[in-house]
Amino acid sequence: MKDLAHLNKYFGKYKWHLILGTIFIIISNFFGIVPAVIVRYSFDLLQRSYDIFKAFSGFELQSTTYELFASSIFILGLLILISALLKGVFMFFMRQTIIVMSRHIEYDLKNEIYEHYQTLPLSFYRRNNTGDLMARISEDVSKVRMYVGPAIMYGINMFTLFVMVIPFMFSINPELTLYSLIPLPLLSISIYFVNNIINKRSEEIQGSLSNLSTFVQESFSGIRVIKAFVREDDIDREFDAASEDYKHKSLRLAFVQALFFPLIMGLIGLSVIFTVYIGSVEVFEGAISTGVIAEFIIYVNMLTWPVTSLGWITSIIQRAAASQKRINEFLQTKSEIVSTHNLEADIKGHIQFQEVSFTYPDSGIEALKNVSFEVKPGESIAIIGTTGSGKSTIANLICRMYDTSAGELKIDEQDIKKYSLDTVRSQIGYVPQDVFLFSDTISENIAFGLDSMEFDDVKKAADDADLLENIDRFPNGFDTRVGERGITLSGGQKQRVSIARAIAREPKILILDDALSAVDTKTENAILSAMARIMKGRTSVIISHRVSSAKLADKVIMLDDGRVLESGTHDELIAANGAYKELHDKQLQGEGEETIV
Ligand SMILES: Nc1ncnc2c1ncn2[C@@H]1O[C@H](COP(=O)(O)OP(=O)(O)OP(=O)(O)O)[C@@H](O)[C@H]1O
């Protein structure tokens, strides 16, 4: 329950909604009680009028008595109608304040979670899967909203109604009150249990539905592979099984739901029977008038829904507490990547790795071991190495996605940790290994890192990334939409849009993480020479498997299993006749074979 305390700040923020809502609830309940009193009065009036009516039997006054009775009943009926109308109006206001408050809180909470997600480091995203992140911001927030909205509203309603109605009932007749209220706690407890079963089964259905949607989504994304391997029938069968599971669980829920209303009706019926029976006994004993029975039946009906809602509210609060606990878990996760001095500066691009070692926190893999190198401002460095040798890890550390485990990483001779995160990242152009494009137009994708989009900058970046010719061939040019994750572009085109996006923001440090793997060597050379021009006065880090990418760099380091194996210029390393030369010869041979083929 203490987890829900996180929401108290929102109740403070929307206190006027809450206060006004409570007042509206009280007023609407008052107009709910008025008709009951009028009904009692009408019954008693009927009784008395009937006696007088009979006493005047055969006299002319009899019809006057009847007319008097009819006009009184008409006025009382009108009063009941007006009360019901006013009750309805205030119920409308009640929902307009409290349910509206819950929607505001839902909106604020979603924003709070989303903003917090953005501050969390990559390691957090590795630990938690996307489904879980989405569930907390959607399903869990919805469950919490049920607490801050309906549960609070019906809770206050129940409380005020109890306070207003029960003492009033006792003041009329304590014995009848006790008997007519006996079945109500039973009703509340049964609703609580039935509701828990319903919730449990609904969650099972949700789980089943989420499996079904994940399955469908994956089969559509992988439709190419499915068709190429002729697995349609298998996939059909798997879908059928997942669908069957969903149906089975839905039927189980339908069964319990079917029990829900008969149960409520049965228990309400029991209350009414008690009221009529005990009421009649009391009437015979002369303790109450018949009108009181009618009045009490109305009270019992009025109290039934709040009592029913007690079980319902309890289970909503329990579920909301569980959801808020999950949300708090994420909200309390703090990013360990923080700035020590919040330094803001224009970076020149001097990078120094001093005895840097790094171990991935989640896998425990030591990706870098005592790595030292230096890139002066405006220089370019190529990092070459086999798969898993730690190349991308270097890029991750420069972008400060992670902090070094040992050693020091300096930018412009200052520890990278001293800079504010935004300062470092905003001056880096990063082209990641796995290209990610947003499902937007090409120009929007290129301008992604810019605060304001100037078409000339976008066009220039596209030109520098050797993309202009391709874009000209698209019917909509720069306005071509790239589809989900850029599916309408070829691998090489996607990589070049990603490069254009990085250079458009004119970074001080450009990092290309294997960004040219999907383009041929001719395009690679064209991009690299264009880049040599653009990156004049800026620092570039070119990560690659291919020696061809390293030729244009001022210096090269060769990594193997997280260690620097060789370093120097391209020519020096060729002359050294070591691992770099071996790789160079092998790749040159490969290219030759490709050309012959
Ligand atoms: N996010 C991560 N969490 C845990 N371990 C990781 C993570 N990323 C990489 N590793 C591990 O760290 C090592 C170095 O990975 P890295 O991505 O730096 O290699 P790489 O040289 O860029 O390889 P490739 O050329 O195949 O991209 C690998 O053994 C890899 O399994």
Automatic annotation (TrEMBL):
Keyword field: ATP-binding, Cell membrane, Membrane, Nucleotide-binding, Transmembrane, Transmembrane helix, Transport
Gene Ontology cellular component terms for the protein in this record: plasma membrane
Location(s), subcellular: Cell membrane
ABC transporter domain mapped to chain residues: 351-586
Pfam families per the UniProt record, alphabetical: ABC_membrane, ABC_tran
CDD domains: ABC_6TM_TmrB_like (cd18541)
Sequence ranges assigned to domain ABC transmembrane type-1 in this UniProt record: 19-319
Highest taxon, organism lineage: Bacteria
Membrane spanning residue stretches: 16-38, 68-93, 151-170, 176-194, 253-276, 296-317
UniProt main location, coarse: membrane
GO MF entries: ABC-type oligopeptide transporter activity; ATP binding; ATP hydrolysis activity
Keyword Lipid metabolism applies: no
InterPro entries, per the entry: AAA+_ATPase, ABC1_TM_dom, ABC1_TM_sf, ABC_transporter-like_ATP-bd, ABC_transporter-like_CS, P-loop_NTPase, Type_1_exporter
Membrane topology: Multi-pass membrane protein
Gene3D superfamilies: ABC transporter type 1, transmembrane domain, P-loop containing nucleotide triphosphate hydrolases
Secretion signal, residue range per the UniProt entry: none
Protein name: ATP-binding cassette subfamily B protein
